[in-house]
Amino acid sequence: MKLLVLGGGAQGSAAAYDLLQNDAVEEVVIGDAQTESVASFLEPFLGGRLRVEKVDARNPDSVRPVMAGMDAVLCALPYYFNLEMTRLAIEAGAHFADLGGNTEIVEAQRELDEVARQKGVSVVPDCGLAPGMVNILAQAGIDELDSTESVRMWVGGLPQQPEPPLNYQIVYSMEGVLDYYTTPGLVLHEGEPVDVEALTGLEQVTFPEPLGVLEAFYTAGGISTLPYRYRGDLRTMEYKTLRYPGHAVIMKAIRDLGLLSDEPVKVDGAEITPRQFFIDRVSPGLRKPDGRDLVALRVEVRGTKGGGPRAIRFDLLDYYDEGTGITAMMRTTGFSLALTGVMQCQGQIREKGVRTPDETVEPPAYVDGLARRGIQVQRTDVEGYG
Known about the structure:
Elements: E1 2-6, H1 10-20, E2 27-32, E3 50-54, H2 60-67, E4 72-75, H3 82-92, E5 95-98, H4 103-110, H5 113-119, E6 122-124, H6 133-144, E7 147-159, H7 174-182, E8 185-189, E9 192-196, E10 203-206, E11 213-218, H8 226-229, E12 236-243, H9 247-256, E13 265-267, E14 270-272, H10 274-286, E15 293-305, E16 308-319, H11 328-345, E17 353-354, H12 357-360, H13 363-372, E18 378-381
Parallel strand pairs: 1-2, 1-4, 2-3, 4-5, 5-6, 6-17, 7-12
Antiparallel strand pairs: 7-15, 8-9, 8-12, 10-11, 11-12, 13-14, 15-16, 16-18
Helix pairs in contact: 1-11, 2-3, 3-4, 6-13
């Protein structure tokens, strides 16, 4: 297998590292605007099965030659590049997967379904952590039950050692986090997709010690198109972000005061956006180069089995890898992207064309793949349901 990873940032580097652990992968190419250096954990592979190519994602002619001859393309670029990169991968006859996060773009990718089928390739948007892993686990629960009433998903990337006032550290993109805090979330309520205000729906979720009690609230971006797919078939489906207690109240106040607005304002004659000012001011304190992170995930599916009530829960706790320096967020997101790409190449995807992970990724094979990477998903029957 030969695979191209577009984007040499945190998630792309993690995906490339994961691919290089697989002896069946002959070559990994990272396509990025910056080619001078790679993540330290990738340096030993340079000159062997790993090479770096300079590409400009804004220029299709820069990307086409690098895609030539690839079995799959894994896109870890910002979401607004996903549609054009999908077109180019299909043109090149390569499978394609991305980290997604924008439902409108996923719907536009779906319009390429027929041409992808004609080319014999699989396109899987939204296959990181959330969206991605949570959707596959949700589908696993739905598949196991005779009928499903509700699906609830909780995910958080957190510091192992929280520090006030936000008890948070940047684990991917501060811009992306603020998008999720300011954009309505999508849920399924009484069988219909509806928008809910981000940072509302506050509740507590308890994980095993030493993590303990976390808070959860609605955010955008994590559920993908699942509510549309199950419209009228399920009563409830929702996604919430996990944080340490107290985070949501602070961030909601900051947002409601207008400090996360993209509308320019004038300060002493200079025009700035409150959001960019906020990012510039808080990011240095939230970037903790020596900070260790963790990822907490829970998916709970409720319905019936064998004529009686049944609930299935999937739990995951993953931690910063001390050996490689790869964060938990990189492991659960970048490794998920890489695993999906390998499954595409090996014919472990249900069908060709454009399909979201819940539609086309086989949950048992995916969960087994995570386990081989040391990412353990624990499945339990929930006691007391019904």
